[in-house]
Amino acid sequence: MTSSRRRLLSLPATALLLAAAGCSAGGAPQVSVPKPPAGEAAYCKALAKVLPETVAGLKRSDVEPKSELTAGWGDNAAIVLRCGVPRPEKMDDPNALGVEADGVKWMLEQLNSGPRFTTTYRKVYVEVALEKKYDHDVTPLSDFAAAVAKTVPLTVKA
């Protein structure tokens, strides 16, 4: 991969993380809200209704603007979920890293600010960005597994 291509791939990630780090007048971090097609948004709305109140021991502390497509946990949104994100370009990379947490498969992107995971083989892409302290810890994904499995169907049979 060329260095210019590497920079291009990291620009959307940088924009997301800068948005997540910013604060609104009310103090809640700002996050870019995805704009999925209506069919995908329906899965996200169902997911929003069953998201856990705590993830990795952190209480839910939503982000701004309020949306059924985004959620946060912990101080300054240490963990941010966005539902209905576009398919990451990195999924075209045959060497992309993946993990499985309680039956839900995720693609890993290691960013300077921390890991970002995106569901794979699901009708809609769900993205979870974690603080750097979670660089080698995928256990927060287990807290999302039941909700994702219940509301976002697989695209392929296992």
Strand percentage: 15-25%
Cα Rg:
15 Å
Order of helices and strands: HHEEEEEEEEH
CATH architecture: 3-Layer(aba) Sandwich
- For this structure, what is the CATH class? Alpha Beta
- Low-confidence spans: pLDDT under 50, at least 5 residues? 1-25
Query: Structural class of the helix and strand makeup?
Result: alpha+beta
Identify the strand order in the major beta sheet: 3-4-8-7-6-5
Helix content: 25-40%
Overall geometry:
globular
Q: What is the terminal-to-terminal distance?
A: 31 Å
Which topology does CATH recognise?
A: Protein Transport Mog1p, Chain A
**Helix count from the secondary structure assignment:** 3
Please tell me the overall pLDDT: 85
Q: What's the count of strands? A: 8
- Describe the main β-sheet briefly: 6 strands, antiparallel
Domain count: the total is: 1
Sequence-ordered SSE layout with sheet pairings:
Blueprint: H1 3-21, H2 38-50, E1 54-55, E2 58-59, E3 70-73, E4 79-83, E5 97-101, E6 104-111, E7 114-119, E8 126-130, H3 139-151
Antiparallel strand pairs: 1-2, 3-4, 4-8, 5-6, 6-7, 7-8
Helix pairs in contact: 2-3
Question: How would you describe what is shown here?
Answer:
It is a single chain. With 158 residues, the protein is an alpha+beta fold. It has a single domain, classed as Protein Transport Mog1p, Chain A, CATH 3.40.1000. It has helices spanning 3-21, 38-50, 139-151; strands at residues 54-55, 58-59, 70-73, 79-83, 97-101, 104-111, 114-119, 126-130. A hairpin with a 2-residue loop joins β6 (104-111) and β7 (114-119). α2 packs across α3 (139-151). The longest helix is centred in the first third of the chain and has 19 residues, at 3-21. It is globular, with a radius of gyration of 15 Å.
